[in-house]
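Sample intake sheet
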Amino acid sequence: VFGYSFMIMMPVFARDVLHLDAGGYGAIISAIGVGAALAAIFMAALGGRMRRAQLVLGSSLLFGVLLAAAALARGFWSAIALFSVVGCLMTLNSIAANTTLQLEAPDRLRGRVMGFYSFVVLGMAPLGSLQAGWVAEHFGVRTSLALGGAICFAVAAGVGWRIGRAQRAEGIGGTVVPSSSGG
């Protein structure tokens, strides 16, 4: 909702922030596509050897940070570089999350899980575009992109914190490990 809507804001970002014409806008969109293609090739070649859950979390964190950084890009070449990495991270996250859900979902629930995932990813996108447009209209397109990146980072950091907390609370066999704080 808050991160992937950056694509909707790209024409405005290119025109109003970077003062580019249609060719410049096309170059930025192409850079996002190149990053996405590289991520897809990487996942096809090495994705099976990686911990997908960590890849989902790591790419989510980095996506948020780099989207916020890209929102602050001052020139064409810095925007090209940052948005190509943003496209790469967006695709890494999508492929890793989709694969993880399909592999981890029980056979009898896989269709329902993937249907819900598709609804969240595709069905909620218009709401993300609505909020991004509203924020851009009232506070500027840089703020819209940076806020989307910051929210993505904050949510991913919160999820990572909760996962780490749950893992620290579990011991071998699911027993609770006493805390070292003495409390």
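Comment: The helical segments are 6-17, 22-46, 52-71, 76-104, 110-123, 125-139, 141-169. The CA atoms of residues 160 and 174 lie 19 Å apart.
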